[in-house]
Structures are given as C-alpha cells and as structure tokens.
Specification:
By secondary structure, the protein is mainly alpha-helical. The chain has six helices and no strands. Helix 1 packs antiparallel against helix 3, helix 3 packs parallel to helix 5 and helix 4 packs antiparallel against helix 5. It is elongated and about 50 Å long.
Length: 137
C-alpha cells in the first residue's frame, strides 16, 4: 500500500465498497427487467455493461492505494472477487451465473488498469495532499 496518511480509512472504505458490490450483485433485479416498470430492458446487454463499469471503478479505486508494482495483485484480486460474485449468484435461485459476466469484469479491470498506468494510479495520495493543503482550522 502507498504511504497514505489515512490508510485505515481507505481500507475501511474499500471493504464497504466490496460489500456494496457483492450486495448489489445478490439483490433481486425485478426492477431491471419488469415490463411494468420499464427498467433498462431496452438496453442490450445492460448486465454486461454494468459488470464492466463496476469492475472498472473497482480497478481505479484499488490502483489509487497501491504502488504500480502491485497492480498485478489488484488484477488477480478483482478477478477472484468477480468469480466469487458469480459463484454466489449461482447459489441463489433468483440470480444466474454467467461466464460472459466474468469476461465483462475482466474488460472493466483491463480498462481501469490502463487508466491507472497512464496517470490515474495513486490518486489517493493526490486526494490526501489536496485535503492537507485546503484544510481549514
């Protein structure tokens, strides 16, 4: 982990983020496909886009806290997390596991890592620096 002043807070926020993603992945999606509500049924493969976007955000989040030399661990960890989500969805009757979701997860991770490599990585240090410089007493 980068030498962050608020490392414990970043770690707690990270755990909360992962729990929120897991909870969302296991929540029934009645609103999503119900014709009475409208939902996003009109949008082809919306589930895959949501998986990709979620794992893109997770990749950017976690690359903000670790050194570039640890990005491979971010990739491995997020891929494992994605498979855990699919496994959990397989175990509940109202959701279904899909290998294409894992592919969408991987695509989101790849895009997030790419963004980190071109300059977004380590963003937590910049945020903490901003907070330190703009702190009002």
């Amino acid at each position: 982990m980068l030498p962050l002043r608020y490392a414990r807070r970043w770690q707690i926020a990270s755990l909360l983020l992962l729990f929120a993603v897991l909870a969302a992945a296991l929540t029934p999606v009645v609103w999503f496909w119900d014709d009475r509500v409208g939902g996003l049924r009109w949008f082809q493969n919306v589930d895959k886009w949501l998986h990709g976007a979620t794992f893109f955000i997770l990749a950017v989040w976690f690359t903000g806290m670790v050194a570039r030399s640890r990005y491979a661990w971010v990739v491995v960890g997020l891929l494992v997390f994605g498979f855990v989500i699919e496994g959990c969805q397989y175990l509940v009757a109202y959701r279904s596991a899909d290998w294409n979701d894992a592919g969408a997860n991987a695509a989101g991770i790849l895009l997030g890592i790419t963004l980190a490599l071109v300059g977004m990585g380590g963003w937590c240090e910049r945020v903490e620096g901003y907070w330190a410089n703009n702190k009002t007493s």
